[in-house]
Amino acid sequence: MSGVLRRGGRVVMATHAAAVMAAVLQAGCHSTEPVRADEAPATLHVTVLGITPGRGVVRCALYADRATFLTRAGISEGFSVPATNERAEFELHARSGQAVVVSVFQDLDSNEELNRGALGIPNEPWGFSGKPAPLLPPSWSACAMVPVAGDNRVEIHLIGKAR
Length: 163
What we know:
Number of strands: 9
Order of helices and strands: EEHEEEEEEHE
Radius of gyration: 23 Å
Structural class: mainly beta
Distance between the termini: 67 Å
Largest sheet: 4 strands, antiparallel
C-alpha cells in the first residue's frame, strides 16, 4: 500500500512500511529504563606496539570477571590479526565502571596458545593493560582498568622478544 497522508500540510505517512518503521523507532525512544552512568557502553581502542612483523598472529582478549581471569571461558571478547606491522589495533567493548583486563600476545607459531618455557615464563611476546610486573605472573589487581563511558585508549607494549 502506498500513498501520502498529510496533516496540516506535513507528510505524516508516505507508505505502510514507513509507518511501521516510525512506530518501531518511536517505541524504542520511549524506554522507561534510563541507562545508568556505570552501565553505559565503553569502547576500548587498543593499540599493541612492539610486534615482530611477519611472525604469526597477534591475539587480543578482554576479561570482565576476576574469577575467570586468564581462562578461555573468561574471555568476553577476543580477536586476532596477522602480525604484518609493528603495531596492531583492536576495538573491544565493555561497560563503563566495570573493571576489565585486556590481554595480548603475539602467537608466533599460530597455535592459539601462549608458549611457555620450563619455568612457565612466556616464550612469545605478551602484554596486559594496567601495570603488570614483567617477571611475575599477571594479577587482576595489577592489570585491571575501569573504562569510562565512550572512547577509551589503551596502549600495550609487548614484553619479550620473538625467538
